[in-house]
Amino acid sequence: MARNITPRQENYSQWYLDVIKAAELADYAPVRGCMVIRPTGYSIWESIQSKFDAAFKKTGHVNAYFPLLIPDSFFRKEAEHVEGFAPELAMVTHAGGEKLEEPYAVRPTSETVIGSMYSKWIQSWRDLPVLINQWCNVMRWEKRPRLFLRTSEFLWQEGHTAHETAQEAREETLRMLEVYRSIIENEIAIPVLAGEKTAGERFPGAVDTYTCEAMMSDTKALQAGTSHFLGQNFAKAFDIQYQNREGELDYCWTTSWGVSTRLIGALIMTHSDDDGLIVPPRIAPVKAAIIPISKDESVAENDILPKAKELSAKLDDELGGMFTKVDTDFHARPADRFFTHLQKGVPLRLELGEKDLAAGTVRIVRRDTGAKIDAANDKVVETVKNLLDEIQSNLFTKAKTFRDNNTHDASSYDELKEIIESKGGFVRAYFGGTPEDETRIREETGATPRVIVPGDHKGKCIITGNEGARLTVFAKAY
Q1: Distances (CA, A) of 262 to 110, 265, 282
Q2: Which of 114, 225, 247, 267 shows the smallest number of beta carbons within 10 Å?
C-alpha cells in the first residue's frame, strides 16, 4: 500500500483524489470548478478519443466544429431543453467593453446551434442523413466539482445526426449505443449495462434516452455514455425541414450522443487499487516501461541502456506504435523508479539489470497482479504481447465479477430500500412509475433508476402495484 494514497476502505473520495495526484493525471485550475488535465491524463484521453473516433468514422460519421458561444434565444426555442440546462448555464453578457444586445451561453451541449445550421444545410431528402460529430469542450456550471467526474468545463464528443424517418433515427440511436458499449467494454475493460433510461432520467428534450451504466469499486453507478432519440422536437424548434420523396415539406428526425472525460474517472474507480492507477493495456499510452538498472551509472548508460533501447524498438514495432518508454532516471533508486511507473498505471514493467544481461533474460512485472516473469531475450516480445492480452482480459473479468456479486433483486419497495441502505450496488426491481415516483425514491433512498434491463422482463411495479412494469436497475450514482 502506497503511503501517499489513502486506502479505499478508509476514505473512498480521498483515495480517488490521491490516485489522480500520484499518477499526475489532473489538477484543480484557478477557475472555480475547472481542471487542468496534465500530460499523463491527456494522453489517456487521446487514446480513448482515438478508439471512439475510428469507430465513428467506420459508421459513416465525419467530424466538424461548431461555436463555443450560443445565442440565449436558441435555448428558448426548445422549452424542455432550456429548463433542463438553465441552472448550469454560464452566460456571456459583456464583450469588447460593451454590454451585448443578446447574452450568449457558453456551450453546455450543441443541439441548438447545430440544429440552426442543419436548417440551412438540409433542403431535400437527398441531403439526408447528416452524420456529424464534434470533439470539443463544454461548460456546465458545477456546484460540487470532482476531477473528471463533475467539472464546470470538460472535454467530450457529441454526435448530432438528422434522418429522413423515425426508424432510421432510432436505428442510429441504438447503433451508437452499441459503439459505446463495445469500446467501453473491449478497450477500457469496464463492463456496462446498456439500455433505455426511464422517463425521469431522459435528456432534456429527448423522446428516448439510452445509457451505458457502469459500477464503480464502491458499488455506486456511473453513467458512462448516452445516446438520445430526439424525435422531431429539435427539428421543429429550429425548422429543420426537407422536401420529402413526395415533394412535400417534412421535419427531420434527429439524434445526439456523447461520451466525455468522465470515462477517465470511470477507469480510475473501476480498476485502480491502493497503490495507484491501473490502466487497461489497450488504452494505455505507455504499455511497458523498460528500466535499465545498475549500481554503476556508467554501466547502466553504456552497456544496459543500448539493450533497453533495442528492446523498446522491437516492442514498438510489434505493438504498432510508440507504446514503450525507456526509463533513464539513473540518479534515482530502482525502487523509486519502479514506484513511479506503478502509480501511473503502466501495465508492464521490464527490468534489465547486469544479472539479467548476463543471463540473457528480462524481468517482467505485471501491474494488475504484481506477478514476476523472467523471459529469455528471444521470448520477451511474445511474452509481453501475451501478458498485455491477459491483463486486459483479467481487468474486465475482475470488474464484471465485482458487479455481478454486488447486483441484487428486490420484490418490493421496502426490500429495495433495505438493500440500498445495507448493501448498495445495483438493485433490480420492476418499475413502471412516473417521474414523480422516481423523485420520491431518490429522496427516500438516495438511489435513482439507472437503466431499464433490455429484454421482455415484465412484472408488478414495486411502487404502483400495476402489472406490466419493466425490470429496472436502481443505484446510488455519481
Answers
A1: 18, 5, 18
A2: 247
What count of residues does the chain have?
478
What single string gives the DSSP state of each residue in 83-126?
HHHGGG--EEEEETTEEEEEEEEE-S--HHHHHHHHHHH--BGG
How far apart, in Å, are the Cα atoms of 383 and each of 289, 316, 323, 353?
15, 14, 15, 18
State the Cα–Cα distance between residues 459 and 457, nearest whole angstrom: 7
Which residues 6+ apart lie within 8 Å of 111 measured at CB?
78, 81, 160, 205, 230, 234, 256
In this structure, what C-alpha cell is assigned to residue 330? 539513473
Amino acid code (one letter) for 43: S
The number of CA neighbours under 13 Å toward the Cβ of 164 is 12
- Give yes or no for a contact between 338 and 364, defined as CB atoms under 8 angstroms apart: no
Closest CA to 198 of 470, 476, 475, 440: 470
Q: What share of the chain is helix, strand, coil (3-state, %, to 5)?
A: 40, 30, 30
Report the pLDDT averaged over residues 425-454. 97
d(CA 106, CA 443): 31
Is residue 310 helix, strand or coil? Answer: helix
Local structure of residue 281 (DSSP, 8 states):
G
At 303 the pLDDT is 87
Cα–Cα distance measured from residue 131 to residue 55, given in angstroms and rounded to the nearest whole number: 13
Q: How far is CA 453 from CA 193, 198, 450, 471, in A?
A: 8, 11, 10, 6
Is residue 81 over pLDDT 70? Answer: no
pLDDT score, position 390: 98
Which residue, chain included where needed, has cell 487499487?
Answer: 273
Q: How confident is the model at residue 84 (pLDDT cuts 50, 70, 90)?
A: low
Q: In degrees, to the nearest 5, what angle opens at C-alpha 250 toward C-alphas 244 and 251?
A: 125
* Coil vs helix vs strand at 379: helix
Residues 6+ apart with CB under 8 A from 224: 180, 184, 190, 192, 211, 212, 213, 214, 259, 262, 263, 266
Hunting for cell 534489465 — which residue is that? 352
Question: At 364, is the secondary structure helix, strand, or coil?
Answer: strand
What is the per-residue pLDDT across 206-239, written as a single tens digit (0 to 9) for each? 999 999 999 999 999 999 999 999 999 999 999 9
